[in-house]
Write a structure and sequence with these properties.
- The structure is a homotetramer.
- By secondary structure, the first copy, chain A, is α/β, with parallel strands linked by helices.
- Chain A folds into two domains: about 55 residues, Vcp-like ATPase, Chain A, domain 2, CATH 3.10.330.20; about 190 residues, Vaccinia Virus protein VP39 (Rossmann fold), CATH 3.40.50.150.
- Chain A is built from seven helices and 15 strands.
- The first copy, chain A, has an eight-stranded mixed beta sheet, with helices on both faces. A four-stranded antiparallel beta sheet of chain A has the order 2-1-6-5, with no helix packed on it. In chain A, strands 3-4 form a two-stranded antiparallel ribbon.
- The radius of gyration of chain A is 21 Å and the shape is globular.
- The two termini of chain A are about 35 Å apart.
- At the A-D interface, strand 13 and strand 14 of A face strand 13 and strand 14 of D.
Chain lengths: ~270, ~270, ~270, ~270
């Protein structure tokens, strides 16, 4: 990426050393109120990523370009979002990559949409379904703000009505009853296509996995990701005292075109590094 | 992705319902020995992803296209690899994406190289450094097998000698003494560029974070990712009895072009979903 | 405890610096085969705890008196045992202490029996029920070997038939269907008496909690304990690469004598240290 | 325990179904202000554990006898306390039991003192050292309130000055520099006696373990305990969203009377249930 002079329309993350961050779309004449005074967009325009701008109180802020995580965490939220720790595993386990066609059902506030659109860019496509028009509107605005609108098609639709696409590479379900989306996902996925689902409760997971088995999916696997922060200071390093104990369980599966008998009773072998 | 007839040169993951998998590059006349008999490549050629092939003993195998995780876990290993759970977080936290230029130092067996190359495709580039020529040879073979060689430049070099590139977007350090790579990383990164590092011990993390602070990096953060598998069976769902307790700690930071005073003493706020 | 000369009948834990341990009841003329040669009991008799004995190959072993954990982990096992990490929480959460009367149902190999008997000594009593006579026989032998037989009464009985005791302080259920033991536990417990239950699956926990609510128990709480080992070496300290990912979920409750409406929908507040 | 009529001086835990609890020592004419109105002690006196009392607003409270955990969590706090999850493991790993003599150094608010005194009752003894008189005063008040004062001897003393006792069974160190207590602990412990230490940082653990090795302790082991709560509701059971991510690392060791060479480089085998 060229590190050119910042101009109106560019999106920046402003970071102050007390670990507060602000995501801003620059505009002529714009102003940002912070916990440590006001920042005039004019003072940022013309600078480069990595440089410092000072607020009205003299507090330094580093001008950064937002990462995928920044964009996901800074969405305007109407709903719970899929967290970066979970989104990262979804990327690696489903193998979403540049050029792929992906369905997301249960778009919520669009955090995962941003993740998927980033991964399929510049030539892939995300089909983003939600049955709640008001969620889609928020998600659309969040995706636009992330500069990814050209990669996403939004559709108001209940999962029971199925998807329009065929032979997609990946389907992500974030639904209260994800098993209701399995038949539609199966029809929409190409052979070998990957399904991911996220749910907070064991009960959802149990019913989801049973449905996936019944619908002939294979390599079904359920995991959870725990993220632990360390407070690193020379001579007194320790884990943080608080952590998030749970977001959701992630279930992954792949579409087989012909039936095979599941034999999932054994604990899969875990490879030890 | 078109789900076309499989032809020589295509790479498939063969999955048997007892959860064993094999990664194979198809060749005319090829044969694969498995735990459940032999599979002739000829029986796979002409089929599609998602279809089934039977081994000499009649065992069904589903023909799948490998995910990013499959490709990472199936590398030939001379060294410990960066695990998918950690690689996923690196993707989201650094925001590696299509078109970016990325340096990896300490390539090892190339699992992370495969991850980064997949993320920057089709137009980005990975500069893969290692001081051990024998590691680079293995990594190169693994990257070629993954069909990603056109995206990666391998260089035998000790980190103390620095990197050739400038203004790269991301640097990933997987070194026994990652702090030795920080000055070179600082010089190679554009403003706002992101650094990631993985280390098994607290001591490495402590020295690394101190070095990053001294070199003017910001948004320094250290985490670990714990992955827990669930054994999901209707009416008797529970976590697995065994898990991987530790791979490494991940440190992330971003390059500021001007100095700011770190003020890292407080525990960052953790957002609760 | 007086550290007197060891005599026949004393139980010792022999520890070699490569972290192997042996639990032995000393006898005149006894011999112990180890991974590092033979140890003659005669060489231990007359020594004190903390001293060293050498095997036939010259390997030093430290003579120790077994802790509660040693005794629990060294039981002869016919079944899964309750692990020390879980037993410790049971002690603190139920408040089992000297002089209490405790029922254990589902004795298995007797590891928890040893824990409970140790906690109620010297004047309390453990009533240990199991419907499998062969388990009780093993448990009895393990309890005797731990020198605690005078504190425990063993009874072959299915939980459906209820318990003989009244007004006991604590009931511990380790049953495949622990909810079947709840009515009997309610009848046997004094007002304010505490119930603990351990089960591997979510499904068991869910049914157990629903039954406890229906039977008027209060302060119902379910937790799991994860134990992580650190490999501590100067300059290279890290968590172990392997850990136990799951043993069981622990449910705790207390007996109310009059009904109150449960209002368990909120997440209890977790106190942060 | 007899479940007799409650009388002045008895200590009760009052529990309301919205999961609030109050620890109260009953007195003629006493009153307790709660979040849901006032409770007159007179309304509790004469009742039994397990019965219900109503507040001035009609809210039911169950009258319970406090468990060890209740007593520990309800201490008046000047300092961080040792948490029940950690205390439970300390009990099992050190094997503190009825009749033992135990030294605690770094008493803080006395939560662990309450735990140890409960475990050694009715005939053992806890020697509780702290160099801060104001902490000892609070701890003494907390121990008295728990009815355990007859089991504990408090001493204002810096650990550098050593302990008065000899041949004790267990030493618990909760100090900012626990290694400073190791020589005194070694001198005070009988052969085979057990040492436990709790510290928040890796750095403390590393120095502590090195000191224990240098002072000839054996079976040195460092662990951490993670406690995870489940929200159990029929059909929607899941882990809590928040959890405590860290309290402290626990180090355990035993006193050998003669030197053996440590050989701690291997990861100890972890037994899988």
């Amino acid at each position: 990426m060229r590190n050119e002079e910042l101009k109106p329309g560019d999106v920046v993350l402003l970071y102050s050393p007390d670990r507060k961050t602000y995501l801003v779309s620059l505009a002529e004449g714009g102003k940002l109120g912070t916990h440590a005074g006001e920042i005039r967009h004019a003072d940022v325009l013309g600078k480069h990523y990595g440089e410092i701008v000072r607020s009205s109180t003299g507090q330094p802020f580093v001008i950064l370009d937002p990462t995928l995580e920044d964009r996901m965490m800074k969405v305007r939220r109407l709903t719970q979002i899929i967290y970066p720790k979970d989104a990262g595993l979804i990327l690696v386990k489903t193998g979403v990559q540049s050029g792929m066609r992906v369905i997301e059902c249960g778009v919520g506030s669009g955090a995962a949409t941003i993740c998927l659109a980033t991964a399929v860019a510049p030539t892939g496509r995300v089909y983003a379904y939600d049955r709640e028009e008001r969620f889609l509107e928020v998600a659309r605005a969040n995706v636009e703000r992330a500069g990814l609108a050209h990669l996403v098609e939004f559709k108001v639709r209940d999962v029971a009505e199925g998807f329009d696409e065929e032979a997609v590479d990946v389907v992500l379900l974030d639904l209260p009853s994800p098993w209701e989306g399995v038949p539609a996902a199966r029809r929409a996925l190409r052979g070998g296509g990957r399904l991911a689902s996220i749910s907070p409760t064991f009960n959802q997971v149990e019913r989801m996995v049973a449905t996936l088995e019944a619908e002939g999916f294979v390599m079904i696997e359920t995991v959870e990701v725990l993220l632990r922060h360390l407070l690193v200071r020379v001579g007194k390093t320790r884990p943080f005292e608080r952590m998030i104990g749970h977001t959701g369980f992630l279930t992954f599966a792949r579409r087989a075109l012909q039936p095979v008998e599941p034999s999932g009773d054994a604990e899969p072998e875990i490879e030890i590094p």
